[in-house]
Design brief:
Chain A is α+β, with helices and mostly antiparallel strands and 926 residues long. Chain A is built from 26 helices and 39 strands. In chain A, helix 12 runs parallel beside helix 13, helix 14 runs antiparallel to helix 15 and helix 20 packs across helix 21. Chain B is an alpha+beta fold. Chain B has a five-stranded mixed sheet with strand order 2-1-5-3-4. In chain B, strands 6-7 form a two-stranded antiparallel ribbon. In chain B, helix 2 packs across helix 5. The longest helix of chain B has 17 residues. Classes of the chains: A alpha+beta (926), B alpha+beta (180). At the A-B interface, helix 3, helix 6 and helix 23 of A face helix 2, helix 3, helix 4 and helix 5 of B.
């Protein structure tokens, strides 16, 4: 998508005299009748550390936590009456949309306002980034819908009773949307085609003979649904050589060709998409409350969407509640519909909130994939010789992030193994299906699923223990992936394989199977294994963070952070990270902060390296300001910024304050000698100085008392720059932007420097960003997870019972181990659901028809995931300085193929399509 | 506009509510959200499947019942007494919040993540504990008893483990809930 840079936004708003206010709902919650503050005070204590989540009290008492909980009456300054809206959607996409017919509502339930495509056109409202969000918000009359479930009108009611009655009356009424002649589905422009070909060098560690990193990715256009490859680097000839080798493979090689299918999934976040918007025409102000994982990006898009329309703005005030989305609320189109509802509310706040049927009909789905794979193995050495893959990614009717997800599937193609030759391609197709987007796994889930099932079957064909076979082919440090990337950090896949192989579930599986099946006629026992990796922190849009820490004269520590809580516990781990560095967490936390006046940064894409270098010479340039929230980037990106901010406060503020206090009695204390404890800063032979005393001294001396910084990472490397900090000197730190505030006792001259939002923005020097995407070879950071699943298949009913499972996780250094454990458990449950239960047909009988809910889409219950019989081990970090790794997505992935492999062990039959349902089991055993 | 409405009076968290004119076919969940501004009972499915919306119906004989509000009309509760999630913890005069033992067990065990389903789990567990106070269960049946009481509640984030462990721990350490 085309992104609007931060500077563009500021410029346009300054030009229009607009003020912008963006932030979390936490401050609003204090004014609302909720039962507890969103951040409570008892979550941490010096003796035990983190006692519970920072948001625990609000969540366990039913406080107003989510955007969905807020009505106009809860929002200070808003009118107290609340209007409600819903979208009328087309459920057929093969014929012309003629009109809507609301006669079934009778006179009494007619909407107070109907918004159609022509209203938007008249007012100058168009879809921003149509290549991303789709061509139209509301389908004009006389056109064929682009996708099933496409909105054709928005209706608004100024009271709840009539809204509720009207919505229920026409919910499943097929006469409301009138259609004309059949046209067949639209021909939509497909989204992407990419192909990666690689041949290793003399050795696995040597430079490749050919790779997409060295010779370029082969991109494609389309002839119908077929890709037409455009190759300038000679990759097609190399691919032809690989194909020829497969065709001529002799008896010394195992050639295994298999096709796999993974359907569309619904992430089924329990909070549906929703928003509440008030447009105050007189004040030219827009107030918004909506659920999102990408508040910064959504706000930019909304600002751009309204520029030049009838609804020009002077003020934009957006608030965001905690949410949950598993990716599906990341830069989705729904918030833009909420804005439309507010604009046409005739001055009243309007709430647009999906019910579950609507959420199935319109919420972003996980992509469906069809995957053809071929694996060639040397029978003598059991080593992989080559792999080819031909993937089709089904993206539905709007692009969203489909091209990136398609490419993401390529990262999973080889799982944790080394392959010397590979030819892998993916095409991303558009169709009338409900759109798919960012969802947990992001393509890797589908790619690794196929890989782990294929490897398992190959081991069986070779007569080898499946884990032993995996060990022989495990990826080693410095080896390259099929794209030519190198694994950053230390891969621990071999250690995980060894642990799994030694686990009693695996060692005793044959004996347990025999014993169980003798005792339980009609039931088959199986144990399956799979391992998975997921990259994190790789792209410029995902790897930056901003944190501010400030100390009051009385010692109160406050934090502001871009972190936006979505259930994973990011807010808690941010606060815990501060405690790790400073001995205690902040007393005050403000999350979801987007407005950072003290860091006046901008970002924009560069056309070439020369332009990039020129941009980076500007101290106000950054590669990217704020990423969306995802489980995989929060700890990697945001915790890093918080850790650096805490270290900076320690170095710039607490340390010189302590020096000043110790100067009389112990002038020889060095920075490296100090020890931070919950009691304060200590040094050899010195009692700890409490934070309150240090803060008072820092303010008295006019030292630095607040730090705001922005960090950027690529993989394990961070941007570094020199900063000349008054009173401290020139220091090189892991940040590309820094602002500080001085204490009350600072000189007038120093205080005069605090011109950026009350801070002194210190211009950096000698900036060094990590090498950009074109770096060769490129490193990728991964987390990994393995799982053993023990299950029983009932050959009479087709039911599958999970007996137990055991997870092995490498998450680096865990900040809050309980949160890591929770992510593992939740991810496994979701993976089991995907593997065994969850299924959505793509087209007319699928979710776009508006009749899907959890009665038909079965989510796993506790009794179906071995809730009492599951264990996990989290690998100890390789050192106490090892960075935490992004997880959560990887926890889901391995469970799917492990289920499939366990069923294969149980039945001696393999399945290639998910979900492996009762019906498929019965058909297989009949 | 004339939508058929009837006065409704009930007790919510010990306080009398109403009479207030309420549409005859309004769900209790919508009544709580839109008329009383109690939004802690969550809308999940609208079909009575996920149980995020449940509240406690307190019967005159002292029996507490978990009841789904998204599929139960508000008028069913006319003259009755319910406890919503907002009524479990107590707020002291100094503003501090006293959690119930169930709520405390959940937060100490990091039981939830997004927390959307949490009110439903608090409600169901509270009903279970109140039942066990009257009818203790054998230790050998503890896990099946918990599963039977909570299995219909859907959680998408956690995999249920920390909820269930919290409930088991609470029952085990609370005198009188297990058979001697």
């Amino acid at each position: 998508m085309t992104d609007l840079s931060r500077r563009d936004l500021l410029k346009s708003f300054v030009a229009a005299g607009v003020t912008i206010r963006l932030g979390a709902l936490a401050t609003v919650a204090e004014a609302a009748p909720s039962q507890g503050a969103l951040v409570d005070e008892g979550w941490w204590d010096a003796a035990r550390g983190v006692r519970h989540r920072v948001d625990a009290i609000a969540k366990v008492t039913g406080g107003k936590v989510f955007s969905r909980d807020y009505r106009a009456r809860d929002l200070p300054g808003w009118p107290k009456t609340q209007s409600h809206a819903f979208l009328i959607r087309a459920t057929k996409a093969d014929r012309l949309f003629e009109d809507i017919d609301l006669s079934s509502l009778g006179a009494e339930l007619q909407p107070d306002r109907i918004v159609r495509a022509e209203d938007l056109a008249k007012d100058g409202i168009h879809v921003p980034d149509p290549d991303y969000y789709g061509d139209v918000f509301l389908l004009p009359r006389g056109e064929t819908p682009y996708l099933l479930g496409q909105p054709v009108a928005l209706v608004i009611y100024h009271d709840f009773a009539r809204y509720d009655a009207a919505k229920r009356r026409i919910k499943f009424d097929d006469t409301v949307v009138r259609y004309g002649r059949e046209t067949g589905p639209r021909t939509l422009k497909h989204y992407a085609a990419s192909r990666y070909v690689r041949i290793e060098g003399e050795t696995p560690d040597a430079d490749d003979r050919h790779s997409s990193v060295l010779n370029g990715v082969i991109n494609g256009t389309f002839d119908g649904d077929k890709p037409v490859w455009s190759d300038t680097g000679g990759g097609l000839a190399v691919a032809a050589g690989i194909a020829d080798g497969i065709a001529k493979a002799d008896a010394g090689s195992l050639v295994l060709k298999r096709d796999y299918f993974i359907p569309f999934y619904d992430a089924s976040a329990m909070e549906t998409d929703n928003g509440n918007v008030w447009y105050d025409e007189k004040a030219r102000a827009l107030g918004l409350v909506f659920a999102t994982q990408s508040p910064h990006r959504d706000a930019l898009v909304i600002a751009r969407m309204l520029k030049g329309t009838r609804f020009d703005l002077d003020k934009l005030d957006a608030r965001f509640g905690d949410t949950v989305g598993y990716g599906t609320k990341d830069t989705a189109v729904f918030p833009l519909y909420c804005v439309l509802a507010g604009l046409y509310g005739d001055g009243r706040p309007v709430r647009l909130a999906n019910d579950r049927f609507e959420q199935f009909q319109s919420g972003l789905k996980a992509h469906a994939f069809t995957m053809k794979k071929t694996l060639i193995v040397d029978r003598e050495t059991s080593k992989f010789k080559a792999i080819t893959a031909d993937f089709t990614c089904h993206g539905g009717g709007r692009s969203n992030v489909t091209p990136n997800v398609a490419r993401g599937s390529m990262r999973g193609i080889q799982s944790v193994y080394y392959v010397p030759k590979s030819d892998i391609s993916v095409i991303a197709l558009a169709s009338r299906a409900v759109e798919a987007g960012s969802t947990r796994g992001y393509g890797c889930l589908q790619g690794i699923c196929a890989a782990e099932m294929l490897v398992d079957e190959a081991a069986e064909e070779l007569g080898l223990d499946p884990i032993e076979f995996r060990q022989r082919n495990a990826f080693k440090l410095g080896q390259k992936a099929p794209q030519g990337d190198i694994w950053g950090g230390t891969p621990r896949n071999e250690e995980m394989l060894a642990r799994a192989k030694a686990h009693p579930l695996w060692k005793e599986r044959a004996a347990r199977k025999r014993a169980f099946e003798v005792e339980n006629p009609g039931k088959r026992y199986g144990v399956g294994f799979a391992i998975a990796i997921k990259n994190y922190g790789g792209g410029p849009a995902q790897s930056n963070g901003t944190t501010s820490l400030s100390l009051s004269a009385s010692g109160k520590l406050s934090m502001r952070s871009v972190v936006h809580e979505m259930g994973t516990g990011s807010a808690t781990s941010q606060s815990a990270m501060v405690a790790n560095v400073l001995g205690r967490p902040p007393e005050e936390n403000i999350f979801s902060v987007i407005d950072w006046p003290e860091l006046p940064l901008y970002s924009k894409p560069a056309a070439n390296p020369q332009e990039q270098a020129k941009l980076e010479a500007d101290p106000r340039y950054t590669r990217n300001f704020a990423p969306p929230m995802s489980a995989s980037n929060s700890v990697h990106a945001f915790n890093f910024a918080t850790e650096q901010a805490a270290r900076a406060l320690l170095r710039f503020s607490l340390w010189p304050a302590a020096q000043a206090i110790w100067a009389q009695s112990s002038p020889s204390v060095r920075f490296e000698d100090i020890q931070v404890t919950a009691a304060g800063i200590a040094a050899p032979g010195q009692a700890p100085l409490p934070l309150a005393r240090l803060a008072a001294k820092a303010h008295e001396l006019g030292l630095v008392t607040a730090v705001s910084l922005h960090t950027f990472r690529r993989g394990l490397r961070a941007a570094q720059a020199d900063f000349d900090i008054p009173g401290v000197g020139v220091l090189r730190i892991d940040a590309d932007a820094l602002a500080v505030r001085y204490g009350d006792g600072a000189s007038a001259e120093r205080k005069a420097l605090m011109r950026s939002g009350g801070f002194h923005f210190i211009e950096r020097a000698n900036l060094a960003y990590p090498p950009p995407t074109g770096e060769r070879p490129r490193t990728e950071t991964y987390s990994s997870k393995a799982i053993l699943i023990e299950l029983v298949v009932n050959t009479t009913t087709g039911d599958i019972e999970l007996l137990s499972h055991h997870s092995i996780m490498d998450c680096g250094r865990a900040i809050v181990p309980q949160l890591v454990s929770g992510q593992i458990q939740g991810g496994v449950a979701m993976g089991i659901g995907f593997a065994l239960h969850e299924y959505l047909p793509p087209f007319e009988d699928g979710p776009g028809d508006g009749t899907w809910n959890w009665n038909r889409y079965h989510l796993p219950h506790a009794s179906e995931i071995a809730v009492w019989r599951q264990t996990e081990e989290i690998l100890a970090p390789i050192s106490d300085r090892e960075p935490p790794k992004g997880i959560a997505e990887v926890t889901t992935i391995a469970a799917m193929p492990a289920c499939a492999n366990a069923i294969a062990h149980a039945l001696g039959k393999r399945f290639y399509e998910f979900p492996i349902s009762r019906e498929k089991i019965l058909k297989a055993v009949s | 506009m004339t939508i058929a409405s009837t006065p409704l009076s009930l007790t919510v968290n010990g306080a009398a509510v109403g009479p207030v004119d309420v549409p005859d076919d309004l769900s209790l969940l919508d009544f709580l959200h839109e008329y009383v501004n109690l939004t802690g009972s969550r809308f999940g499915c609208g079909q009575g499947i996920c149980h995020a919306c449940v509240v406690i119906l307190d019967h005159d004989d002292g029996v507490s019942e978990e009841i789904r509000t998204c599929i139960t009309g508000a008028h069913y509760f006319n003259g009755r007494s319910i406890r919503t999630i907002e009524g479990h913890a107590k707020k002291r005069e100094d503003g501090a919040i006293e959690l119930t033992e169930v709520q405390q067990a959940f937060i100490e065990n990091f039981a939830f993540q997004c927390g959307y389903c949490t009110p439903g789990f608090v409600t169901a567990t509270t009903v279970l504990i109140e039942r066990l106070r009257k009818t203790p269960v054998a230790r050998a049946d503890l896990e099946t008893t918990i599963t039977a009481a909570l299995d219909h509640h859907i959680c998408r984030c956690t995999g249920y483990v920390r909820y269930y462990q919290a409930v088991r721990g609470l029952i085990e350490r609370t005198p009188g809930l297990l058979e001697a």
